[in-house]
Amino acid sequence: MALEAAANYLEAELVSYGYQVRLQEFVASGVKVRNLEVTIPSQNAPGQRVIVVGAHYDSAHETPGANDNATGTAAVLALAKKLKALGATAQSDVMLVLYTNEEPPYFKTPLMGSRVHAQALKARGVPVTAMLSLETMGYFSDDAGSQKYPWPLNQFYPTQGDFIAFVATTADLGPVRTGVRSFRSHSAFPSEVIAAPRFIPGVDYSDHAAYIDAGYPALMVTDTAPYRYPHYHTAQDTPDKVDFDRLARVVQGLEAVVRDLALQP
Q1: 23 is in which domain, residue-wise?
Q2: Per the structure, how many domains does the chain have?
Q3: Residue 174, exposed/middle/buried by CB under 10 A (0-12, 13-18, 19+)?
Q4: Which helix (H) or strand (E) holds 55?
Q5: pTM above the 0.85 mark?
Q6: How far is Cα 190 from Cα 223, in angstroms, rounded to an integer?
Q7: pLDDT tens digits, residue range 195-217?
Q8: Are 103 and 61 within 8 A, CB to CB?
Q9: CATH classification of the domain holding 65
Q10: 60-64, 109-113, 150-154: which has the minimum mean pLDDT?
Q11: What distance in Å separates the CA atoms of residue 255 and residue 60, rounded to the nearest whole number?
C-alpha cells in the first residue's frame, strides 16, 4: 500500500535526523493509519507555548501527488533537519507533524488526520499559539493570467502566479501578517497575504482548518493549488512539474519564520 510505504519512509527519515517519532494511530474505513509527530522542545519554557508546522503526506486517489502534497511534506522534513537545535534558544516548543487522510473521502471529516491531531491537542489543553499548514507549494509561473482566484479576490491580487501565498481567515489576519513580515524580512521571494472569510472557496481547503475549528490561530502556506496549478488532482501531478529552486527559496524563508515565532518571548 502506497500510503503505508510513504509513512514508513517518512518515519525512517525523521528517526535518521535523531528524532523520536510519536505515532498517532487511528482506524479509517477498517484500515489503521497514522500521523507522524516530532517535537523540538524549548529548553527555556517547555510546554508553555507550542507552534505546529504540518503537511499531509497522502495524495488524491490515483495521483502521484508530487506537488500536492509531496512539496509540503518535503518542506516539513527540511525544517525538521534545519531546526533540530532550535530548542536551546526557543521560547516555544515546535511540533512538526505529517498528516494522513487530508484528501477525499476524509477531507473535512472527523477522520481527517489533522482533525484527529488538532482535537487531541485541544483535549489535552495544549497551548498552540500558531499553526502553519504547508500545502501544495512548488508550482510557479511568470506568465500573465496564470493565477486565478475565486470572486472577489480576483479584484485585488496579481494575475501572475510567481508568488507564495499566506492564507488565513479574517479572524487570523494578525498572525498571518506577522508570518509574512517575518518571511519578507528574510527572503526576497514574492509573497502575498490572503485573509478572507471561510465561505470564500479555498480559504480553508487544507489542514489549518482543523486547528481553526479547535480554536487555534492557523494559516496555510501555498502556491494556491487549483487556482494556479493545472495538474491539481490529476495523474500529471509529477515531479517534473515542481520548481525545486523556487520551492527551496520558500522553505528557506519559512525556516526563518518558524525561528522568529519560536524565539518570541
Answers
A1: 2-263
A2: 1
A3: exposed
A4: strand 50-56
A5: yes
A6: 11
A7: 999 999 999 999 999 999 999 99
A8: yes
A9: 3.40.630.10
A10: 150-154
A11: 27
Cα–Cα distance measured from residue 255 to residue 250, given in angstroms and rounded to the nearest whole number: 9
| Crossing angle of the two packed helices 173-186 and 244-263, in degrees rounded to 10 | 120
Q: Specify whether the backbone of 42 is left (phi greater than 0), alpha (psi in -120 to 50) or beta.
A: beta
C-alpha cell at 256: 526563518
Over the stretch 116-166, which tens digit does the pLDDT of each residue have? 999 999 999 999 999 999 999 999 999 999 999 998 888 888 999 999 999
Of 70, 71, 66, 3, which Cα lies nearest the Cα of 236? 66
Asked if 129 contacts 49 with a C-beta cutoff of 8 angstroms, the reply is yes
CA atoms within 13 A on the CB side of 116: 23
66 CB burial (10 A radius; 0-12, 13-18, 19+): buried
Question: Residue 244's CB: how many other CB atoms inside 10 A?
Answer: 11
Nearest to 54 by CA among 69, 73, 68: 73
Torsion angle of the four alpha carbons 159, 192, 249, 74, in this order, in degrees rounded to the nearest 10? -100
Q: Measuring CA to CA, how many Å separate 5 from each of 9, 75, 119?
A: 6, 19, 26
Instruction: Identify the H or E element spanning 28.
Output: strand 22-28
24: its cell numbers: 498517532
The neighbouring-strand residues paired with 207 are none
Query: Does 4 score more than 90 pLDDT?
Result: yes
Beta-bridge mates of residue 128 = 50
Q: What is the pLDDT of residue 41?
A: 97
pLDDT at site 188: 96
- 82 pLDDT higher than 90: yes
Q: How many CA atoms lie within 13 A of 174 on its CB side?
A: 5
